[in-house]
Design brief:
Radius of gyration: 27 Å
Strand content: 5-15%
Order of helices and strands: HEEHHHEEEEHEEEHHHHHEEE
Largest sheet: 4 strands, mixed
Number of strands: 12
Mean pLDDT: 83
Low-confidence stretches: 15-27
Distance between the termini: 83 Å
């Protein structure tokens, strides 16, 4: 009886799995509406829940425009008593915020079969990292977040992950203002905190670091940085139309990855050939009396050939991804530029956060601002 029950369970599991994969192949998307923030179902349609969508847009804006960390955003939502996606509590975590920032459904797409059931008896679900096919559906439903903004968030997530502990969200200049002497970031410091002369200044975080020596770059006030940025922006964007045209041309160049794609595909073909040669070598070795030394020598040659080819392919994939990321930065820059006045008369935090890649502070108090489209301006 136990064997019959087990076989029936296996059969049911296979049928359910087959049914789900047929649905995936057809592009049918299912939503866990009760625990998915921002969407609801009306009839057979997926529609935006505007009350919840406000929270999603807030999370993306706080991360990208205000520079907040996932933990900082979670703490803010918790302090505002905003319910989590499950609706069961207001106890937000950084992982919950991160999952919202990385979920492609918020740009209107859907990646199907992110997980799969590994054991039909235990019904355990594990992350799909290539064990079974995945399906990607574009423009499946209304987007809460614009596609460009969503992609920009992914780039920013990768940038912060690469920076690790160096990233700081303590103020709008953190992790963008760089010391010319040591390459370290500037940070906000309070002087004379216990007196009437107390004030905040921005200073290289490694200024008095024992291993780095003493940096000779100056301390800056917030007003210094803001005024220099306004001047740098106005100088750089003086011929707005030319800047926009040049940026559009660069986007076209960066977007053309045809040759890279062809080279990646050719190397993939080479990898398949080498893998087949290895399989043949193993089979021949099992059927013949080839010496172990000859077998090991040939196997090592094929393995080295495979590793070198794989490395070339990975380098090309990285180059392609970098071009795509640069093109996306340019597109975002161009999109933002279209929505900004020709000239800045006052400080604009939105422009600073979205259009400036970094700013290097020099010993003579000047700052070189590097914009997302590659333009540099020293003031």
């Amino acid at each position: 009886m136990a064997s019959i029950a087990q076989e029936e369970s296996r059969s049911i599991s296979q049928n359910v799995t087959w049914g789900k994969r047929v649905s995936f192949q057809a592009g049918k998307v299912s939503f866990a509406y009760k625990s998915f923030l921002g969407y609801k179902k009306e009839g057979d349609k997926i529609v935006i829940d505007e009350e919840q969508a406000v929270i999603v847009r807030l999370i993306y804006r706080m991360f990208l425009v205000e520079g907040k960390t996932c933990s900082g955003i979670a703490n803010h939502l918790k302090s505002q008593q905003i319910e989590t996606p499950s609706g069961m509590s207001t106890n937000w975590s950084k992982n919950t915020v991160n999952s919202i920032l990385t979920n492609e459904k918020y740009k209107g797409d859907a990646l199907l079969q992110k997980t799969f059931t590994d054991n039909y008896l235990e019904h355990s679900s594990i992350k799909n990292t290539g064990q079974v096919p995945q399906y990607y559906v574009e423009n499946n439903h209304p987007a809460i977040i614009e596609r460009e903004m969503w992609e920009q968030v992914q780039i920013e997530l990768a940038r912060r992950d690469q920076m690790g502990a160096q990233y700081s969200s303590t103020d709008i200049f953190a992790s963008k203002l760089i010391c010319e002497d040591c390459g370290g970031f500037y940070g906000k410091k309070k002087w004379h905190s216990n007196s009437k002369y107390s004030r905040f200044i921005h200073q290289c975080n490694r200024k008095f670091h024992k291993d780095k020596g003493k940096c000779l770059t100056p301390n800056l006030t917030e007003e210094d940085i803001k005024l220099k940025f306004i001047n740098a922006y106005n100088v750089s964007m003086k011929d707005r139309n030319r800047v926009m045209q040049d940026t559009a041309e660069i986007i076209d160049l960066l977007s053309d990855t045809t040759q890279l794609e062809q080279d990646i595909e050719h190397l993939n073909d080479d990898l398949i050939v080498v893998a087949e040669l290895v399989n043949r070598l193993i089979k021949e070795n099992s059927k013949t009396n080839t010496s172990l030394d000859d077998y090991n020598k040939r196997y090592e040659e094929l393995r080295n050939r495979y590793d070198k080819t794989k490395k070339k392919q990975e380098d090309l994939i990285m180059a392609r991804n970098e071009k795509r990321a640069q093109a996306l930065n340019m597109k975002t820059f161009l999109s933002n530029l279209r929505n900004i006045d020709d000239k800045l008369s006052d400080w604009n935090e939105h422009v600073w956060m979205l259009m400036v890649e970094s700013a290097v502070v020099h010993r003579d108090t000047s700052i070189t601002f590097m914009f997302q489209n590659g333009i540099e301006s020293t003031i």
